[in-house]
Amino acid sequence: MADDSSDEDLARLVTDLVRTLRELEDELEPPRPDEGPRLPTPRDLRRFASEVAIPGFILILETNIRALRLLQRALRLADGAETASRETEQLRERAKSASESTLSRLDEALVGLQDAVEGRPNDDEAAELLDDARELRAEIQRRIRESTPDDGATRSPDGDADESSGDGRADADGDGDDAVSVDVDAELESIKRDLDDLPDADDAPTDGEGEESGNGDAGDKSDDGPSSDASPDDGSDGSNRE
């Protein structure tokens, strides 16, 4: 069974990262166009290219938020019981594994976003949030790896050993990224269903940060459905923003 204080620290870091990613999404809202027609400058063209790239990165942020909030639920369930059941511990480990997979892609997305926001007006806040997110991401991934038994091979989201990727990073090729994305999405859906089916799921203590309105499941309904990755501007997701 994992150390309780370690899980509490991890839960706090996860909460901080979810909040930071939400704030980052707000900062990445497209800026209003300047008034009046004029010829675009080279800076305008670079900014346009950045705005085109940003939605793809935001989809990765959304996937990470889904995974992290499921990890929050799994950690709270284990923390809320005197002795975590075998099923609860397995779900916690699956949630950690899925989160580690998405966190590896998140770092690449945050690096891409740092390049994308350069040159945007008033981008200081976004740059600061990006730095915070990268630090939190690295710390969470480090703690997840430290708490996971090292059997010499990383685990894919479906639990199979994957010895070809010791650092947990997704294949840079497009086909590899697509396969990883599908696997992670399917695993997140599976974890959510299993969490919902637990008899004590509704009694899971909240993290006290206000994201879940006092109900262990309330904050996940809008983040874990199949449509959450379809569009970061989905109205069902906006109600959970800080």
Automatic annotation (TrEMBL):
Annotated InterPro entries: DUF7547
Positions of region (Disordered): 23-42, 79-103, 140-242
Compositional bias ranges of the Acidic residues kind: 173-188, 197-214
Basic and acidic residues: bias regions: 84-97
Protein's recorded name: Uncharacterized protein
Source organism: Halosimplex carlsbadense 2-9-1
